[in-house]
Amino acid sequence: MSRRLAGVAFALALTTAITALALVGYGTHAAVVTFELLAPLGVITVLAAEWWATNRQRAGGLRRQFVVVAAVAGLQFAAAVLLFAQLMFVSAHDAFFTVLVVLYASAVAGWTARLLGRAALDDLDAVRSTLTAVGDGRRDVLTGVTGGDEVAALAADVDGMVARLAGEEEARATLMAAVSHDLRTPITSLRLLADAIDDDLVDAAMRREYAARMSTHVRALSALIDDLFELTRLRSSDLQWTMEAVRLDELVADTVEAMRPAAGTIAVRIGGATPVAARANPEKLQRVLFNLIQNAIRHTPPDGSITVRTSAGDGTVEVEVADNGSGIAPADRARVFEPFYRGDRSRTDAGAGLGLAICSAIVEAHGGRIWLADAAVGTAVRFEVPAG
């Protein structure tokens, strides 16, 4: 109802403006006749257009709607000219040729609108065809639409959506392949060990050794499943944590002290612990520190060292975990935070390749970021989170 009233108000306002021009140019009588003619015509046309817009699902395609709009405009012009000819004593000769001019102008305008609209309609057809192909499972299609109008912007959004779908499906397939590989190896070993025990192929001492190996594989499977579950939860939108002010320098000191026994002969030290506070979940942030230090331990030689530093930024706090190990190949640097991506497997034979992905998910859930910093020797991983 509000749209309909707005349309009527627009028609009456436009009629009033035209009437004012007639009053200035030809006097009161001409103004009154102009208002009496145009007001009903404008209101009827607007109401008809509102009805048409409300029931546009019955109108067919846009091409048919363009034809209807052109026809309505032509009829309105012709009706206005005929009414003026009858009520304002315009000669039949002048009225006839005026109607011809109006019809001619309407036809040319309709043809021009058709030419201009055809390109847009063709672009819409291309977008529709692309979406149909995507719905059928294809991911190698593009709309092919160029330009700077609204349809081109829509087409660009569709092309971006298709690219994201293709990337997500490729990542999902890669993830499934990696999960399958990492599950298959321990499961195959478990089956072989269980078959050997079940078939009485080993003595009691070897049976105990096989049972110990089975326990190792079970723990590896359990750790993998736990990491997958945590990564899935971290990437879900309904994740909620309790955030609080955390003394990051103290958290780093506690974590480094806890990791020293696992480091063995590798020196794990604090290179600089600026007293800084972060707005974070302490348990999750400590998980990031554990993962980064553990990852550094795996890639550092026995006589190497690992240094952890904290510093304050502009509204953020930053932590760096650096080692003097063999470093990461340039080709692998862009993908080290992807799940299961391990690059040179000779470097990363331990773990399933989820540690850095979990770190990235936790840091991003805090509103921060994580990256590989430049290092002359070894690897330096930095992350920052909002200051507390």
UniProtKB/TrEMBL annotation:
<keyword id="KW-0808">Transferase</keyword>
<keyword id="KW-0418">Kinase</keyword>
<dbReference type="InterPro" id="IPR003661">
    <property type="entry name" value="HisK_dim/P_dom"/>
</dbReference>
<dbReference type="InterPro" id="IPR036890">
    <property type="entry name" value="HATPase_C_sf"/>
</dbReference>
<protein>
    <recommendedName>
        <fullName>Sensor-like histidine kinase SenX3</fullName>
        <ecNumber>2.7.13.3</ecNumber>
    </recommendedName>
</protein>
<dbReference type="Pfam" id="PF00512">
    <property type="entry name" value="HisKA"/>
</dbReference>
<keyword id="KW-0472">Membrane</keyword>
<keyword id="KW-0812">Transmembrane</keyword>
<keyword id="KW-0597">Phosphoprotein</keyword>
<feature type="transmembrane region" description="Helical">
    <location>
        <begin position="66"/>
        <end position="89"/>
    </location>
</feature>
<dbReference type="InterPro" id="IPR003660">
    <property type="entry name" value="HAMP_dom"/>
</dbReference>
<dbReference type="GO" id="GO:0016301">
    <property type="term" value="F:kinase activity"/>
</dbReference>
<feature type="domain" description="HAMP">
    <location>
        <begin position="118"/>
        <end position="170"/>
    </location>
</feature>
<keyword id="KW-0902">Two-component regulatory system</keyword>
<dbReference type="Pfam" id="PF02518">
    <property type="entry name" value="HATPase_c"/>
</dbReference>
<dbReference type="InterPro" id="IPR004358">
    <property type="entry name" value="Sig_transdc_His_kin-like_C"/>
</dbReference>
<keyword id="KW-0547">Nucleotide-binding</keyword>
<dbReference type="InterPro" id="IPR050351">
    <property type="entry name" value="BphY/WalK/GraS-like"/>
</dbReference>
<dbReference type="InterPro" id="IPR036097">
    <property type="entry name" value="HisK_dim/P_sf"/>
</dbReference>
<feature type="transmembrane region" description="Helical">
    <location>
        <begin position="32"/>
        <end position="54"/>
    </location>
</feature>
<dbReference type="InterPro" id="IPR005467">
    <property type="entry name" value="His_kinase_dom"/>
</dbReference>
<feature type="transmembrane region" description="Helical">
    <location>
        <begin position="95"/>
        <end position="113"/>
    </location>
</feature>
<feature type="domain" description="Histidine kinase">
    <location>
        <begin position="178"/>
        <end position="388"/>
    </location>
</feature>
<keyword id="KW-0067">ATP-binding</keyword>
<dbReference type="InterPro" id="IPR003594">
    <property type="entry name" value="HATPase_dom"/>
</dbReference>
<keyword id="KW-1133">Transmembrane helix</keyword>
